[in-house]
Amino acid sequence: MHSHIRYLAAVALCAMSSWAAAQTVRIGFIAPLTGGSSDFGNSARFGAELAVNEINEVGGYMGRKFELVARDDMGDPEAGFKVSQELVHKEKVDFTVGFCNTGVAMRSLEVFQSAKHVLMVPCSQGTAVTTKYPARDSYIFRVAPPDHTNAKFLVSEVVDRRQWTRVAIFADRTGYGDGGLRDLKAELAKRKLEPVYVARFPLGVKSLVEEMRAAKAARADAIISYAVGPEQAVAVKSRQEAGHNIPYFAPWPLSFRSVLENAGAGALEGTMMVQTIIHNTLNEHRASFIARYYKHSSETRIGSLMAAAQSYDAVNLMLRAMFITKGDTDGAKLKAALGRLGRPYKGVVTTYNRPFTDDDHEAFTENMLFLGVWKKGQIEFFYPEDAKRAGFIRRKKDA
Description:
44% of the residues lie in helices and 15% in strands.
């Protein structure tokens, strides 16, 4: 039995009470369970379900079982807004874990903020998700790297480490692509640089061959692509079809199973992406989580390991906030508790030691990120030294 499960069991046995046993803790969950983003949406769902099941196996919180009330936002902002209202106002869930797509999240944030209802975001990385409201007033928290951090990581990798100054940016026309483009331009501007070429494209685009040729004509040293999974597949296939082997970098959507399925291992070979977690047997805790995930989901390949692990950790961090509030799920009390988590939680992605404060609702900092690379249909650490250190945990700066 894992250490955090033993801890939960001890607390549950010591704090069991008959009045609490009858009250179920209902967790809202929102993700794209169908549509183009369903691979990582369902990974997030399976990760959250696994956390709920394990918590319930040791008695829940003070005898109170957890229940996941899941809704499909289909990757559509209006659908996400509708189910957000349903969960908060009709179902009256205690708190919500949700959102994979930035545009969908942004449409619904006001539902949670106005109701003083805690939303823990396990996947959506758009910078604006946690900056729309001042942190001290905000009920929005995140267990995923924000895009301003991703952009800093990628530009540092391309420009600072490799000395490539001619950067082309490919960005889809979603809230995710819009925000990523802004963040990348801001990072380049800090170095007195501008992108040599920018390609914008809608969801559902079938080819980007001409755009790849234009990037080559602009003498770009590297491409940084901000797009959701299906469009990442189109971009890497178009790069291959254009006969252009320009180095290709992206945030986490490049790692999705659907990108491999739609683009093929050949087109992906050597492309690089930001990751918070990469499967490596040197880290026993992560390897154990992956084995439990496969048993729970019956998948043969995880749609997104990051989505699964971050959702699992998000549920467990909310449980620890409940220990501080002594089971009270009032939004204001949960919000205050998240800023004061005491005992470190050994999660799957990292060990969380004060992941949040009143003024910081982001659980990740740049030093916690890895550069992954596609090799023969598998994601590996780009740098051998990262693979060697995979058994160690990278913790948040200034934690």
